[in-house]
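Hey, quick one: can you model this chain's 3D structure?
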Amino acid sequence: MSDQSRGGRIRATGSRRKRPSARRRATTVAAWAVAALVLVGGSGLGYVYFKLNGNIQGVDINASLGTDRPVDVDNGSMDILVLGSDSRSGANSAYGEDEGGARSDTAMIVHVNEGHKTASVVSVPRDTIVERPDCENDEGVTADGAPRAMFNTAYEVGGPACAVKTVEKMSGIRMDHYIEVDFTGFTKLIDDLGGVKITTTEAIDDSKSGLKLEPGTHTLDGEQSLGLVRTRKSVGDGSDLGRIQLQQAFVKALITQVKEIGLLSSPKKLYDIGDTATRAITPDSELDTVKELVSFAGGLKSLGSEDVNMITLPVQYDPADPNRVVPLEKASEQVWTALRADKPIPASATEDSAGDKGDASDVVTGG
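Sure thing. Here's the predicted structure for all 367 residues.
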C-alpha cells in the first residue's frame, strides 16, 4: 500500500489516522517473535518459567465472550489468536505519546493440527475490511458493530475479547487461546537468543527502517531484526502485504534459531529468555500460570519451521478504497474450511490473493 494510505489515522468513526511509527512496526515483529516462541516453546523454556510466574498477567476472554461462539471442536487440534497491539501506555510511551487507545497492529491465527506435528498460520492484514460484531469491553460497555470496519478497530473498541469475537465471526472457528504481545522487549528477546541468522538474496537498503544488508548470510541482533521486519519500500512490491511476507520469512528463521541454540546448555540464557518472553506476553486466563504455559508449550516442541505453513488471508484491494483490502470470499472460505476440518490449506486458496503475490519472501531465508 502507498505511503498515502498510511498517512492518516482511521478510528471506528472513520477519522484519519497517523502514519505508523517504529513503535507500530516493533509491535509487528514482537508478535511474530513470540508466535515463534509459542510454536517451539517446549524447547526448554519451561525449565525457568517456574521462577517467572510473577511476570505473567492474563486476561479472561471466556467471561466476556459468553456462550455465543462457534462450536468447541475437541479433536486434538488447537487454534490460537496471536495479536500485537499498538498501545503507547506504560513502558511503550518511549515509542510515542499515549493517546489513550490501542489497535491490533498484527494478528495471526495459529492452527496446530491434531497430533501437534504441523501448524498453519494465517496472517490477517490490519487494514482488512470486515464485519465487526457488537462487542462488550472490559468495563461492560457495548460497542456497536459495523458492516465495514477495519479489522484492527475491533481491539480498539472492545479490547481482546472483541478481537477474538471478530476472528470467530469471520472464520467460524473457536479460538482455544489468545496471546497478546507487547513490543518493548522484542530487541532484548532477540539479543538474549544470540541473534537470528538469515540469508539475503539481494541487497537491502531501506531508508525508512534504517536496515542495510549486503547479499549473504547475517546474524541479526535485535535492532537489525526490527529493521528487517520494518522494511517495505526496498523489497517486493513495497506494500504492507509484501512486508508480511518478510515477517513470515523472519519468523521461520526464528523458529529454527530457537530449536538450534541449545538453551538447556546455558541456564543463564534460558533464564534471560524466559524472563523477557513472560514479560512480553498477555495470555488468556487458561494460560496465565507457569504450569499452564509449560504444558501448552510442551505440546508444541516437535514443530520445526518446515512444519509450519504460513499464508496471508486471501484478499484483494478494496474497490471502494484502494488503501484497504477485503477478503476474497470463496478463497477465504477455503482457508477456514480447511482449518475447521484440521486439513492443510489448499494452494488454490492463495492463487489470486494480493497477499501472497510479489517476491518479498524470496529476498530473505533462514540460515
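One thing worth noting: Confidence is low (pLDDT under 50) at residues 1-32, 40-45, 87-100.
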